[in-house]
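To illustrate the input format used throughout this study, we show a single complete record. The first block contains the structure-token representation of the backbone; no residue identities are included at this stage. The design step must infer an amino acid for every position from geometry alone.
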């Protein structure tokens, strides 16, 4: 991929500072990454698998925290969101407060160097964070490798990893996460047709830690 500002912390700090101001002005939580259907897809899959509501869930790069809010509304009780942008966590705290979801845990954390407090999750969810890391102008390959190591560190053996991506195909993601993870399922996503070829604009996969 070509390097992009979307892969830099400065971009996301500025973006979430703007969204924080907007929320304070008009109560709008801002953009839902990949749209609402991406959240519905994740929650439906968890419910179909009868994943216990008290399972520990980590939202990697939580942004405005709206996915965690929807999980809480669906009955999940052990929810944590992290983001390396302090503005994102400030925003998600305000959204949490507005929705009255005080049991959701939020913290400023760089997933590429997770603190000792993070390990032990049964489910990790990524909606666009791995994409952003892949666009970092500074050593994106090394950062992707570190992401996989961090995921292994925070996710319990046999834990589930749900990833939604607009930059990577199924085959590419299976290759990226080949060290320590096996694919369980590809979730259905909208298809498009271009030049007679059918493809997916978004890839959504479920992995299990070995």
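Output of the design step:
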């Amino acid at each position: 991929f070509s390097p992009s500002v979307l892969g830099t912390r400065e971009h996301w700090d500025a973006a979430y500072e703007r969204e924080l101001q907007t929320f304070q002005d008009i109560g709008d939580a801002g953009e839902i990454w990949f749209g609402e259907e991406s959240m519905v897809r994740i929650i439906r899959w968890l419910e179909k698998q009868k994943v216990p509501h008290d399972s520990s869930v980590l939202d990697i790069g939580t942004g405005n925290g709206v996915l965690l809010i929807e999980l809480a509304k669906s009955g999940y009780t052990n929810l944590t969101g992290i983001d390396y942008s302090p503005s994102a966590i400030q925003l998600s705290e305000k959204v949490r407060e507005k929705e009255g979801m005080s049991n959701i845990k939020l913290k400023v954390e760089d997933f590429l160097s997770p603190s000792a407090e993070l390990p032990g999750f049964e489910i990790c969810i990524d909606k666009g964070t791995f994409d952003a890391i892949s666009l970092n102008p500074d050593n994106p390959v090394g950062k992707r490798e570190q992401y996989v190591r961090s995921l292994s560190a925070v996710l319990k053996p046999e834990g589930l990893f749900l990833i939604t991506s607009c930059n990577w195909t199924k085959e590419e993601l299976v290759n990226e996460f080949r060290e320590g993870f096996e694919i369980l399922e590809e979730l259905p996503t909208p298809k498009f047709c271009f030049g007679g070829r059918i493809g997916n604009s978004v890839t959504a996969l479920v992995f299990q830690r070995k």
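Structural context for interpreting the output: The mean pLDDT is 88. Helices lie at 9-26, 36-48, 66-73, 86-99, 129-134, 140-154, 170-176.
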